[in-house]
Amino acid sequence: KCWITQNLGATDQASSATDSDEASAGWYWQFNRKQGYKHDGTTRTPNTTWITSINESYDWQAANDPCTILLGTGWRIPTKTEWENADNTGGWDNYTETYASVLKLHAAGYLNYSDGSLGNRGSNGAYWSSTQNSSTYGRHLLFGSSYSNMSSSSKAVGCSLRCLRD
Q1: Cβ count near 17 (within 10 Å)
Q2: Nearest in space to 166 (alpha carbons), one of 71, 68, 76, 66
Q3: d(CA 143, CA 152)
Q4: Global pTM value
Q5: Cβ proximity of 105 and 96 under 8 Å
Q6: What is the DSSP string of 93-110?
Q7: How do residues 60-119 score in pLDDT, each as one tens digit?
Q8: What would you report as the CA-atom Rg of the chain, rounded to the nearest whole angstrom?
Q9: What φ, ψ does residue 99 adopt, rounded to 5°?
């Protein structure tokens, strides 16, 4: 598989595990939504009404996949299993190890489900998979200074995307 080595929407590759620069953070997406959001630390763009609850009983739909939309046919969001395989193969225990990997995953933070505000940029990374956990929760890779694992969060959270091609 071929993975991109910077977050979707980023203009720069992260320079460290805790890089908190907007240019390397890229954009954030709510689960199964086409619209991406960037955040400069103060303002979310576009600053449209934030969806605070998503309730739908399916995985990320191919027609809504920002990887395909922005990068073209063949690119897609990884599944939960693909993230688990990357995490297990890499032996990741923290953001130092995710960044040291060939994927250069860093702590880009996330957008809070309640209001779309920026959270934990520079200390946590949250990367969506295309797999839902339930009608209101999606699965994502989550890591910080002392952990790395698959977790689930409200589909209204804005997480980073890394794309892959088979």
Answers
A1: 22
A2: 76
A3: 12
A4: 0.97
A5: no
A6: -SHHHHHHSTT-----BE
A7: 999 999 999 999 999 999 999 999 999 999 999 999 999 999 999 999 999 999 999 999
A8: 14
A9: -75, -35
